[in-house]
Design a protein that fits this description.
The complex is a heterodimer of chains A (about 300) and B (about 160). Chain A is of the alpha+beta class and about 300 residues long. Helices cover about 30% and strands about 25% of the residues of chain A. Chain A has 11 helices and 12 strands. Chain A is globular, with a radius of gyration of 19 Å. With about 160 residues, chain B is α+β, with helices and mostly antiparallel strands. Chain B folds into 2 domains: about 5-80, Beta-grasp domain (Ubiquitin-like (UB roll), Roll), CATH 3.10.20; about 90-165, [2Fe-2S]-binding domain (DNA polymerase, domain 1, Orthogonal Bundle). In chain B, about 35% of the residues lie in helices and about 15% in strands. Chain B has helices spanning about 25-35, 90-95, 105-120, 125-130, 145-164, and strands spanning about 5-10, 15-20, 55, 60, 75. Chain B has a 5-stranded mixed sheet with strand order 2-1-5-3-4, with helices on both faces. In chain B, helix 2 (about 90-95) packs antiparallel against helix 5 and helix 3 packs parallel to helix 5. Chain B is globular, with a radius of gyration of 16 Å. The chains are: A alpha+beta (about 300), B alpha+beta (about 160). The interface of A and B includes residues 17 and 60 of A.
Chain lengths: ~300, ~160
């Protein structure tokens, strides 16, 4: 889904389009295959209608998937993981006891995403499918190693979330494909996690965000530490090498400083209206150190 | 592209309306311009300010980001639906008593959100109130009076719950 940003023009009306509300997945896929890039899938609509209003996104055909019952499911299998369907709203996940207790890092990301009114409409899958670097649920899902179930008329495939983002507004989805659900594996035993988001004002998008997942910090053999960022480069990003680094049997304080050094050498942050490269570099260092400290000690 | 009109049914404040809408008309547009319900305001038209808040199937949403066709068959509550004509709901009284508005443009959004919060959680803490209204913007009062009004109205909702 390409997003071309131009000057913001104030439109109170949406551009014209044709609206479909298929009842079955097959029907939706056939429409998507017929119209290819001219059609856009809509779940909550808080993203698509926003982008269309600003004319950053064009669609001649809008396919509303809320009528497809099988996409509105939350399924949890003990020991395996959680499957969240494409039309499950963020509010439904936020109120879900399993998400709150088993996936606190994701819950923390959802809590900080937009506001309650938006979360009542917006979906988890939708948050990912726009391919925006600032997606607040993406860092948490990256640390949980989530996978996306993708389907088209030609069949199904699974995409690892870390291979899904292809640049600002771009994803690995082909024009005739759609995501039916996201699978989030059971977190490592004893895992704790937090998402820290830096903003200019409460109603603005993030300057950047950091998700840190920590399990068994005191035991080097079982220790797992994963760190992911939003809005630092053109996609949400996880630093894979951090997990290897923390396997070493060294004092935790030393490892944390090494991890920060490693992150700084791997990531060159962008500069934009929300923050300069220097600011983001500083926040990356500060946020990583703060989260590691609170999660390991607390 | 010739746009065809789609017939939909909306149940607004307990009354059923049958209207024909274009696919690109939002719920906000239809409520204001076709059903003449003017408590629902439009300002930013992109989900930032919350003055267009309505309760869609019981949940507060921003009606500028909902297509009217999506709401086909849904139950919608606007400010007019909180109390019969000529009377005030407890939450409205609390807003009056605490001076929780100046120009009043954002008030319908705040009152509907507060009404939803207190019906579901009459014991809401100050943090929960702030969290609930975080998607709404008021440019006059500075929120203090609004939060006080919501806290004060909570007792009426508690009484209602005990009666049930």
């Amino acid at each position: 889904m390409a997003v071309s940003k131009s000057v913001i023009v104030f439109h109170t009306l949406l551009p014209e389009f044709e609206y479909f509300r298929p009842k079955t997945l097959q029907e939706a896929l056939e429409l998507l295959d017929k119209y290819q890039g001219d059609a856009k899938v809509m779940a909550g609509g808080t993203g698509l209608l926003f982008f269309m209003r600003l004319r950053w996104m064009q669609a001649k055909y809008v396919i509303d998937i809320k009528g497809i019952k099988e996409l509105h499911t939350i399924k949890y299998e003990e020991g395996k993981g959680l499957t969240v369907g494409a039309t499950v709203t963020l509010s439904e996940l936020f109120e879900n006891e399993i998400v709150k207790n088993k996936y606190p890092i994701l819950w923390d990301g959802i809590r900080q995403l937009a506001d309650m009114h938006i979360r009542n409409r917006a979906t988890l899958v939708g948050n990912l499918c726009f391919g925006m670097p600032s997606a607040d649920t993406a860092p948490a899902l990256l640390t949980l190693k989530a996978k996306l179930n993708v389907v088209s008329v030609n069949g199904t495939r699974t995409i690892e979330l870390k291979d899904f983002f292809k640049g600002e507004g771009k994803t690995a989805l082909k024009p005739n494909e759609m995501v039916t659900s996201v699978f989030i594996p059971e977190p490592p035993e004893g895992a704790k996690g937090r998402y820290l988001k830096f903003v200019r004002t409460a109603d603005d998008g993030p300057i950047m965000g950091i998700a840190v997942l920590v399990a068994n910090p005191r035991d080097p053999a079982k220790r797992i530490v994963r760190i992911a960022f939003s809005n630092v480069v053109s996609t949400p990003i996880i630093i894979d090498e951090v997990e290897e680094l923390f396997k070493q049997d060294k004092p935790l304080g030393e490892l944390a400083e090494e991890a920060i050094k490693l992150i700084k050498s791997k990531v060159t942050p962008k500069s934009d209206v929300r923050g300069s490269r220097e600011l983001r570099e500083h926040l990356m260092e500060y946020g990583t150190r703060y989260l590691l400290k609170t999660l390991i000690e607390g | 592209m010739a746009e065809k009109l789609i017939p939909i049914t909306l149940k607004v404040n307990g009354r059923e309306y049958k209207v024909e809408v274009k696919p690109n008309e939002t719920l906000l547009f239809v409520l204001r311009n076709k059903l003449n319900i003017k408590s629902v305001k439009g300002s930013c038209y992109r989900g930032e300010c919350g003055v267009c808040t309505v309760l869609l199937n019981g949940k507060p949403v921003k009606s500028c980001l909902v297509l009217a066709v999506e709401a086909d068959g849904a139950e919608i509550t606007t400010l007019e639906g909180l109390a019969p004509f000529g009377t005030l709901a407890p939450i409205q009284k609390a807003f009056l008593e605490h001076g929780a508005f100046q120009c009043g443009f954002c008030t319908s959004g705040f009152i509907l959100t507060a009404h939803w919060l207190l019906t579901h959680n009459p014991d809401a803490t100050e943090e929960e109130i702030k969290e609930a209204i975080s998607g709404l913007i008021c440019r006059c009062t500075g929120y203090k009076q609004i939060i006080e009004a919501i806290k004060a109205a909570a007792k009426y909702y508690k009484q209602d719950k005990q009666k049930q």
